[in-house]
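Lab manual, section 2.4: Encoding a predicted structure.

Procedure: take the sequence of the chain (232 residues), apply the prediction step described in section 2.3, and record the output as structure tokens. A sample record is shown.
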Amino acid sequence: MSLFEQFLWVIFPYLCVVTFVVGHIFRYRYDQFNWTAKSSEFIEKKRLMLGSLLFHIGIIPVIMGHVAGLGIPKAWMNAIGVNEHLYHIGAMYGGGFFGVVTFAGMLILTARRLTMKNVRRLSSASDMIVNGLLLFIVFMGMYSTLVTNNVQPDFDYRETISIWFRNLLILRPEASYMSEVPITFQIHILAGFSIFALWPFTRLVHVWSVPLNYARRSYILYRKNRSHSAGR
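Recorded output:
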């Protein structure tokens, strides 16, 4: 393997993961009051609700499919009765359907941010980059599933990408598994790791905002109750 391939499939993924973890710690410690989605719902609600609904309906099954496909060895699937044919049908039709739903939602959200003057004015450069990158990631994943898998039916990502990914997790990286992977899958993977590196520095941190905001509200109510009790 060349040095460049070692960088792409060993060094770069670990750099993205480290940036994801350290970046969140840094952001929370020094910028937690800007840890918010800064919603533009008050400007326009209809397209925001539709796009967000479609995106979330699609992305949850897509994530679950990625976890199963990358994290569960092929032999384990066969052992529980999910053979190659059944898995292919689920990945192709189920994954393809929810990929399209996710892409439609992301397309609506991105178009809304780009075409509506007031929403665009409220958006930062990082918002534009994240929207564009997420749209690109979903498109490449959908294209790889629906097109590349049909054009190259002999390719099995569970014998290449999945093993490479699991080796990364156990800190025994082996870049050679990615040498024969189609370019569309490679682009999808690299873009996916890139979004993890950008995550702590963008509005994507709002994914964690709900429990954080709940904790803060609970603390404020607690303090108020104590003050009220003391006044009595």
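Check your result against the sample. Residues 9 and 126 are 25 Å apart (CA to CA).
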